[in-house]
Design a protein that fits this description.
heterodimer; A: alpha+beta; 4-stranded mixed β-sheet; B: mainly beta; 6-stranded antiparallel β-sheet; 3 helices; 20 strands
Chain lengths: ~200, ~280
């Protein structure tokens, strides 16, 4: 269990931890005085605080005391995302990973995923749990426009593009599931901690 | 007193801004809001609004508005000539506007972003609790175009309390204070003294997301790829070129390049007023 607290200006600290969502849950359960927001990412948790209430040194001490031992995990929801595997990069991914297109689809659809964090754009969820055989660097030239609903992979992550945007991920298929809709009470279908399964559709 | 304001001209880029959407970064939604928050707050206070009301952020001036009802407006931020009807009026002061009068902003002569608040606020539909345009996240009202009509609200905080708010002039060569960022150790020991040792020049590659600078590159000591991590406004993110990008209001929620230093919050309003070609100095504190 490792935990490093790094400086980040006058109203934030960056925790580098091996269990990002665990520390987020621990801090939400017992919020140190002055904490205003927690932002999880791949290996880090950004802790934003109100400098009128507390200072970096006091917050650093509070974070040093935080532990994830014996933490009851909140029950997580599971979302099933239907996917039509017709992405433009299927053949390239198959070639780069040494698998057949059919095997790429099977391995992607067979994975048990969890939302590690959101970023890039509103509702863009980084899903961990991708089969290591499918871990590929991003495309060398990003596309200027990736359609909304595209199901894609890059590095150790899979994701569903919430809206059309530029993007450098490999496109495996698309879904009709609305992962981001500001008209919903909970606009984000896939907040951090959500478990996700992809279901291949014909 | 509710009415509407018709946008006749926008200048290069005008958006609706308030204090943004704090607290949603875990969903991938950045805070956004006015780039120069102090100027937005002041403009609102001058017309008797709550500081959180929506106003217009006008890049480089050039805005023309016509109001349907008598109104009170105030312009703050970058130095700019303001005309109401045929009258030249001052900035940093509440100004009465008659029904049918045009409010015209000239070209900003010092600083980049002007703020125009109207008594009652621009009453657009809030998205996730705010009316701010987030250019990175694609949230809020689209950038204004001529012909847009903006509803004016009727919620106010009180009556305008002062005739004029004296403001210091924006500095010719701003000095921005920096503190160490989370990845200073990814750079050589000289990085901070390189950053603070010579001025940087503001390039034309500048928007609400950030300011690309030109100047001495910072040299990496660790060449690894950084997994995405959350950023804050004021973060100096260093791409492979070594020359920092200064993050402003619409910065991405997470970024993939290391941040060796952060501009202090007190200096962010001045940073939001940087113009292409201007020189800027970083000072360690």
């Amino acid at each position: 269990m490792s935990k490093t607290v790094l400086p980040y200006g006058g109203s934030a600290l960056l925790m580098e931890v091996d269990d990002v969502l665990g520390y987020q849950a621990a801090l939400e359960l017992a919020r140190p005085r002055g904490v205003v927001e927690l932002v999880p990412a791949a290996r880090t948790l950004l802790v934003l605080f109100d400098p009128a209430v507390t200072g970096p040194e006091e917050m650093r001490q509070a974070l040093a005391r935080v532990s994830t031992v014996d933490l009851p995990r909140p029950p997580s929801t599971t979302v099933t995302v239907p996917v039509r595997y017709d992405g433009e990069d299927l053949a390239d991914v198959a070639e780069a990973s040494g698998l057949s297109v059919r095997e790429v689809v099977q391995r992607h659809a067979g994975g048990a995923y969890e939302v590690a964090f959101c970023g890039f754009s509103p509702g863009f969820a980084y899903l961990t749990g991708l089969d290591p055989a499918l871990h590929l660097p991003r495309r060398s030239t990003p596309r200027t426009r990736v359609p909304a609903g595209s199901v894609a992979i890059a590095g150790e992550y899979s994701a569903v593009y919430p809206r059309s945007s530029p993007g450098g991920w490999h496109l495996l298929g698309h879904t009709g599931a609305e992962v981001w809709d500001i008209e919903r009470a909970q606009p984000n279908l896939l907040p951090p901690g959500t478990r996700v399964r992809f279901e291949a559709q014909r | 007193m509710t009415g509407k304001a018709e946008v006749l001209a926008t200048g290069p880029f005008t958006t609706v801004q308030d204090l943004g959407r704090p607290g949603l970064a875990a969903l991938g939604v950045g805070r956004s809001g006015a780039a120069d928050r102090g100027s937005l707050r002041l403009a609102n206070r001058l017309v008797g609004n709550p500081e959180t009301h929506a106003a217009l952020e006008v890049t480089l001036g050039g805005l023309r508005l016509r109001v349907s009802e008598p109104a009170t407006v105030a312009v703050t931020g970058a130095e700019v000539d303001v005309r109401v009807g045929r009258r030249a009026v001052g900035t940093n002061a509440p100004v009465a506007v008659r029904a049918g009068d045009e409010v015209v902003l000239g070209r900003a002569t010092r600083g980049l972003r002007c703020y125009l608040a109207i008594r009652g606020g621009f009453d657009l539909r809030p998205i996730l609790g705010a009316r701010a345009t987030d250019t990175m996240g694609g949230l809020g009202p689209p950038p204004l175009v001529p012909g847009t009509t903006l509803p004016i609200g009727d919620a106010v905080a009180g009556y305008p309390a002062v005739d004029l708010a004296p403001r210091p002039r924006l500095p010719e060569e701003p000095e921005l204070h920096v503190t160490p960022g989370p990845r200073l150790s990814w750079f050589t020991a000289a990085a901070l003294s390189t950053l603070t040792g010579a001025p940087y020049t503001v390039t034309a590659d500048l928007d609400r997301v950030g300011v690309r600078l030109d100047g001495p590159p910072l040299i990496r000591a660790i060449d690894a790829e950084l997994p995405p991590e959350a950023a804050v406004p004021g973060a100096l993110q260093v791409p492979p070129s070594g020359v920092p990008i200064l993050f402003l209001a619409d910065h991405p929620v997470t970024g993939g390049y290391p941040v060796p230093a952060v501009v202090t919050e007190a200096d962010l309003d001045v940073a939001a007023q940087l113009r292409p070609g201007q020189r800027v100095r970083f000072t360690a504190r």
